[in-house]
Write a structure and sequence with these properties.
The longest helix is centred in the N-terminal third of the chain and has 19 residues. The relative contact order is 0.18. The radius of gyration is 19 Å and the shape is globular. The chain is 38% helix and 18% strand. Helix 3 runs antiparallel to helix 4, helix 5 packs across helix 9 and helix 7 crosses helix 9. It is built from nine helices and nine strands. The strands form two sheets. The protein has a seven-stranded mixed sheet with strand order 2-1-3-9-6-8-7, sandwiched between helices. A two-stranded antiparallel ribbon has the order 4-5. By secondary structure, the protein is α/β, with parallel strands linked by helices. Helix 5 links the parallel strand 1 and strand 2. The protein has two domains: 41 residues, no CATH class; 215 residues, 3-Layer(aba) Sandwich (Aminopeptidase), CATH 3.40.630.40. The two termini are 14 Å apart. Bound molecules: zinc ion.
């Protein structure tokens, strides 16, 4: 690290490509170099709000659209990270426009430096859903699975760095008392995602649209399962979200070597 801190910051900001060259000059220091070149002195954290208001994703056990969970948490993460003053924070599709997944993926693909976290809340396969009535309305729920999941894409140029970022995040989420859900690995239609590390709920989702061509380290986080009736209530509490945000922040800090 010390060797690279001695280099002009402008050199380090030129990105991974230049740093690959520098790494060749300083053989053996590659892992530190890669982290530093990506994060720089003040990393930019891109936060992607999963889905849009008009295409809101899953529906919770009590009928609340996933997008509202994603939007609220992204804004809370952003506020918290900005207070740290160590990061630049940018929210993708902050205005909530009804842009397509294709457009969102395209804008993510264009980003050359920084880190990306796509924030989602999870559901389960339809066969596990049951009916119940909430405030006079029929809703669908499943109390079968709980927990978070982390996805990275094996087809992304940034796969190796994404894995390091995901491992750092996963370690902190676990340390904060959260546990991973492994239901996406089940060998049934719609699932069967390969697990890279079951202990932290890290999956390889090869063709995941938002991540499959990212050039920067990128992780999609399913924060919890909103069709689970207890987990939905937990995800709604400020206390849980504070715990998640603190763990997320520690994970990014640790990945970037900022303490
Ligand atoms: Zn989603």
């Amino acid at each position: 690290m010390a060797v690279f801190l001695a280099l002009p910051f402008s050199v380090l900001r030129r990105g991974v490509k230049d740093c690959m060259f520098l790494a060749m000059l300083f053989a053996g220091a590659m892992p530190v170099l890669a982290d530093y070149s990506i994060c720089g002195e003040k990393p930019t954290i891109y936060l992607d709000i999963g889905h849009t208001a008009k295409m809101p994703g899953a529906k919770s056990a009590r009928g609340k659209p996933e997008y509202l969970f994603n939007d609220r948490l992204v804004r809370e993460i952003s506020t918290s990270l900005k207070k740290e003053r160590k990061f630049d924070v940018k929210i993708i599709n902050s205005s909530g426009k009804n842009i397509s997944l294709k457009q969102r993926s395209k804008s993510v693909r264009a980003i050359e430096t920084g880190i990306l976290a796509s924030i989602h809340h999870d559901s389960v396969q339809r066969k596990y859903l049951k009916n119940w009535t909430v405030q006079g309305k029929k809703r669908r729920y499943s109390d079968r699975f709980q927990g978070y999941s982390l996805f990275i894409s094996g087809s992304a140029p940034s796969f190796k760095e994404s894995r390091k970022l995901a491992e750092s995040l996963g370690a902190q989420l676990k340390q904060a008392g959260m546990h991973p859900s492994l239901h996406h690995a089940e060998a049934i239609p719609g699932e069967g995602r390969p697990l890279l590390d079951a202990s932290i709920g890290l999956y390889n989702f090869y063709r995941l649209a938002i991540l499959k061509k990212t050039r920067i380290p990128a992780v999609l986080i399913e924060v919890g399962i909103i069709v689970d009736r207890s987990e939905e209530l937990m995800l709604e509490t400020p206390r849980f979200r504070k715990t998640f945000i603190e763990a997320f922040t520690r994970g990014v800090n640790s990945y970037c070597g900022l303490h």
